[in-house]
Amino acid sequence: MNSKLPKTPAVYVKSKSFRLADVDPDDITPFANRPDDKSDVAPRLLELRRRLSELQELLYAEHRRSLLIVLQAMDTGGKDGAIENLLTGVNPAGVQVATFKAPTSEELKHDFLWRIHAQTPKRGHIGVFNRSHYEDVLITRVHGLIDAKTCQERYDDINHFEQLLTRNGTVVLKFFLHISKDEQAQRLQARLDDPAKNWKFDPNDLKERAYWDDYQQAYEDALRHCSSKDAPWFVIPANHKWARDLAMSEIVVAALEAMNPQPPKVDFDPKQQVIV
Amino acid sequence: MNSKLPKTPAVYVKSKSFRLADVDPDDITPFANRPDDKSDVAPRLLELRRRLSELQELLYAEHRRSLLIVLQAMDTGGKDGAIENLLTGVNPAGVQVATFKAPTSEELKHDFLWRIHAQTPKRGHIGVFNRSHYEDVLITRVHGLIDAKTCQERYDDINHFEQLLTRNGTVVLKFFLHISKDEQAQRLQARLDDPAKNWKFDPNDLKERAYWDDYQQAYEDALRHCSSKDAPWFVIPANHKWARDLAMSEIVVAALEAMNPQPPKVDFDPKQQVIV
């Protein structure tokens, strides 16, 4: 990641002593002083969207590098909404969103990165992972499907895999959308109260909610072990959706600005071309 | 296709005696009387975008059917711009755009529909083909890479393949963006004149332009043979980009309205769920 980070509530994970509990999911500074004081937010979001759309077109024209955005969160953390808000307005022909659910029986016949690798973005594209290879050091660990040694090995595998991608010209940005346990309760309740949202509720989410503390620990460890300069993790305070969206947009646009994509040079003389 | 077609300049190909030359690429009726008289266009496009975004979310929630939009055109016909205008504003997580170029050596080891089949949209998704299996009865035919018998067999193969998709719940809409030869000359020249557009110019396009009449004939034949009620072809007059975009939006939204996607019913009682 470029050294000039935009000013957002997001926390860039740099150290092995990083503590998730130190990040306040309600944080909105420096965007605003109070959650209802956000008069400057809408125009800035619009400006970032316009710029993202321009940069995506240049990335596509250049056709040499790509951007991968990895999104992880607890249930109701806002992954779907964040993707929609970040990328709505960008030409969908240059975007690939991959959603990873429980692996299929075919996928389980391979190593855990096999299905992930198949979905990495093509040159010129922005790829988004809605959940990712990190599930293989989160849910699997919380439920004791892998032991500590395997988990450590997977951190290594993940770091090597992301290094391969960055060496091939893919900039990797990873976002953990950080909500509080209370906020999750409210969002789950909203899905139950509104009949139009009932289909988004999965009774199984309540079982996972019981493992809240174990998940926070598993996230903290994964973020500590798998954040690097080339493939950084950002913890995004995400109780306030508008602050979450603005922080992500700022970071993504800054990363693309640093990439500074250029349209390719042509190998013909435009003046010599005659159209008949 | 539902019998109630929206009123647009588009021509729905219904008959084996369809003539491409009868469609005027400049046609803008009933949208406007003159190309510069389009005061009602912007609000209508906005309304269609809003509705498309809602319908896409319902299609995604329903998770049972999908929509496939096939785009074909002569070079500079506006496929990229049409896709961008149609789908910008739709949640990219529910959209898959596949761009088909010259087949790779691996793809050539299979039948011509193999690589196409792999890119058909998942349940709940809108898929877009930027070029498609129709190239295999267009460029191949114009350049004599297949004979008349093979071409006829491929029309059959295509019809059977699209029938398989529609039987599986995929609504198939096919658009030929119809520009005039003069319009193509102007668009190619614009790519030469504007340094920022130079990279979009391919000197090879001039060679293909020399086969203009052969391509028009190949398109006419493909459209005659491969347009059905379930997988119709629409010829979109496309000299005026705004009319092209509006026509496509009207047809796509009407098709989704006819599908009438519904969120799935839940199999639990929301009142019985307790969040602790």
Major sheet summary line of chain A: 6 strands, mixed
Assembly type of the shown chains?
homodimer
Beta-strand proportion of chain A: 5-15%
CATH architecture of chain A: 3-Layer(aba) Sandwich
The tally of domains of chain A stands at: 1
Helix content of chain A: 40-55%
Q: SSE string of chain A, helix = H, strand = E?
A: EHEHEHEHHEHHHEH
User: What are the low-pLDDT stretches of chain A, counting only 5+ consecutive residues below 50?
Assistant: none
Provide structural commentary.
The structure is a homodimer of 276-residue chains. Chain A is α/β, with parallel strands linked by helices and 276 residues long. Chain A has one domain: P-loop containing nucleotide triphosphate hydrolases (Rossmann fold, 3-Layer(aba) Sandwich). Chain A is built from nine helices and six strands, in the order βαβαβαβααβαααβα. Chain A has helices spanning 41-62, 79-87, 114-117, 139-142, 148-167, 181-193, 204-209, 212-225, 241-259; strands spanning 11-12, 66-73, 95-99, 126-130, 170-178, 233-237. In chain A, strands 1-6-5-2-4-3 form a six-stranded mixed beta sheet, sandwiched between helices. In chain A, strand 3, helix 3 and strand 4 form a beta-alpha-beta unit. In chain A, helix 1 packs parallel to helix 9 (241-259) and helix 2 crosses helix 9 (241-259). Chain A is globular and about 70 Å long. The N and C termini of chain A lie far apart (49 Å). In chain A, 38% of the residues are buried. The model of chain A has no long low-confidence stretch (mean pLDDT 95). At the A-B interface, helix 2, strand 3 and helix 6 of A face helix 2, strand 3 and helix 6 of B. Chains A, B: Pfam families: PPK2 (PF03976). Chains A, B: Residues 38-262 form the Polyphosphate kinase-2-related domain. Chains A, B: One of its GO terms (molecular function) is kinase activity. Chains A, B: Keywords: Kinase, Transferase. Chains A, B: Belongs to the polyphosphate kinase 2 (PPK2) family. Class I subfamily.
